[in-house]
What does this fold into?
Amino acid sequence: MAAADQEAHASTVRPRSYQDEGYLHGFLGTVGDLQKAGVLQDVVLEVEGRQFPCHRLVLSAASPYFRAMFTSNMAESRQKTVVLQGLDANIFGEILSYIYSGTLHVSLDKVQPLYQAADLLQLDYVRDTCSGYMTMNVERSTCVVLYKFANIFSVDNVRVRCLQYIGRQFQKFASSEEFCSLSVNQLTEIISHDELDVKEETTVWEAVVRWVQHSKEDRLHHLPSILPHIRFNLLTSDDMAAILEHPLVREDPGSSEVIRNVLQEGNPNMKPRLGMTTEMVLLHTGPWGIGEILFMNPREGKYFSCSYDQTDMPEVRAMTVTGDNNIYILTCEREGNDQLCLLQYNHAENVWEHAGMSSVSRIKDSEHYDPFYYLVEVERILYYLVFEVRIGCAFLQLTKYNRHTSKSVHSCKLTVC
It folds into this structure.
């Protein structure tokens, strides 16, 4: 090839970058092997008297905390042995295992100290994984412990989930020993929520009485600060008279005055609790695109409609109402698009908003049979089902939406003949 041709050919060939996937995946494994073999370690971390030989480079790459420690003028950057305070040795061993392997083992008995250690060492993945694990494991035996922990460390997603659980189970929760262990701030936060599943506000008052009487000498003086969070405007005149004559109110001079002030001033935010709201039936008959939601009150036999801005509202495949009173629809992202997205109805703004879930591929319609579409909730997880019956066979395809992780996963496809 002539020199001119070679030069012309070279000018048309673009440079490329190549990535060795085997090297990327194998590098961390090699580093882990070096750690296990005790090779090239240049620093010893001491936690509760237990020593952990490590590599400064690996620690600095994994954690901004260690990177600042070993790359600054701090005394630790020059020490062969560094003593770490405020950590549990066993938990630090788990953290170190994650740093060298990328694998994290989480259980209910160690998730809180793992979160604390990750918070100190600035390990975002560990911290986020632990908070997600706590959120998914809020139940009767754990809600108070996790709620208190979330308050101390400002883990908002865990705190909100605990408050939701406590609200739904308030009557049972208020009669438990855990309820009496709450601080005054925790108590007032809980009874301030609209989501308490109580039929009458007297239930909230009785819970407060029980909390105060559990340690009366220490808690009675808190009563005036708690009372404004009770919705006296929802009580009958007889209930109010009984409360004003209650021994706790009569014993504390400021309490009756607080109650009367609350009643006189009023509070527009003191709306009915979740358990006091009217149950409604959501109706939809189609065709979609009319910009209206129709409800029915079964007890009164009345119908209500809610109109919304229907701009750019595409075809709706399925609709459901969840246990926390949220309305969801599954719809095509754009006309002719094969992707489905989940929209949530914003009651306050009267608009449909993206629910924050990842999109899923649209299940193709059959040319000869009309499938049935369903969107249902089971234990706070949404499922989209397409059910089709043909001669001699039934077809089912299911997609799961996990609202904790904002991910959608195709769970199964089933054919029965």
